[in-house]
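Thought: the user asked what Esterase looks like in 3D. I have the sequence; next I should run the structure tool and report back without guessing.
Action: structure_tool
Action Input:
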Amino acid sequence: MPALFGGVVPLLAGLLLATPSARAASLAEVTDFGNNPGNLRMYEYVPTSAGANPPVLVAVHYCTGTGPGFYSGTEFASLADRYGFIVVYPDANVSGQCFDVSSPQALRHNGGSDPTSIASMVNHVVQRHGADADRVYVAGASSGAMMTNVLLGDYPDVFKAGAAFMGVPFGCFATTDGSGWNSACANGRISKTPRQWGDLVRAAYPGYSGSRPRMQLWHGTTDTTLNYNNFGEEIKQWTDVLGVSRTPVLTDSPQPGWTRTRYGADSTQAPVEAISVSGVGHSLPTSGMTARVISFFGLHQATPPPTTPPPANGACRVTNTVSAWNNGLTDNITLTNTGSSTLNGWTLAFTLRSGQAIISGWNATFAPTSGAVTAKNVSYNGTLAPGESTSIGFQATHTGDTGTPTEFELNGSACQVG
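Observation:
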């Protein structure tokens, strides 16, 4: 198996600008933390600043790394001293020191293997230290980033947010031959629609209807170990899971070489935040990045940030296909009720691109003919049961812009697009 993130410990160790020379607390191994099907080792750092009911951060190392190595090679412990949260460092404890993110057991809730062991670690910390079960987070690099994606899919009831440095989407590394390595995924050759990626996450915990954890994603543009294409696939997956548009609400550059996009909200704790780092390979995180992780989690705050609620009843998914010619086009729209309640009457709101004007429509009434348009059901398709779809569409003129609407709302609730 190729090494993920191997040889980077010296780089990280040299970047500990915020780590004090001595701490009153120290890293400790926990030898009996409960159900451990992955045969992992567990290390914990409980700072003297941790008060009653402290938050928990699980920090997951890369291939060839260890829990103690990730402790000494990242800034999480010094940040824990400052803000009073507990850090748990899982240790893969196998040849190559990679985590299982490939087996069928690893890709389902309570399925066994490494994710179940890590969930046991969290439960142990909550019980032993009185930690706050409503403020549990996970961050990881490379193999640990892949595990971060897996843990958020397997245990949305445990983790409130995750941060993945140089990872791949949940399920991308799945294998059927017993191997822990998926070359097609590693090389960025697996691409799925947002819904397909989202369905992999939802299938990990059938029947779960609670809040979903937020996700922060980091990737270097010249990564040759886990190809940069995986960054875009992760964005597809988590915007779909969290029910937010893939059109960023913010694009900026908080540091030279960084491109940050936020999805669903322009806030420090957005549902999804993605940071692309130009000209950097498989060597993240570097100094200062972990502090931004802490802000995204809200661990610098006395009170937790709000959770992201599940898509409301009446939420929908929209796919649409445009066929264009000279100065005309048709747009075929498929509307799916992804809520848990039957819709009895619906309106679908969207905004046409500049210069487009509807001249006719089918299976819905459209008004007005340009700008912000509302499509209302007709008599025979007003009832949509959960999971049921209907097809509508329109013909329009255009003045050159033949693009599709990028955002839709069903009865006032934002839809997933794609």
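Thought: the tool returned a structure. Summarizing for the user.
Final Answer: Structure for Esterase predicted. Residues 113-129 form the longest helix (17 residues). The chain has two domains: 9-297, 316-417.
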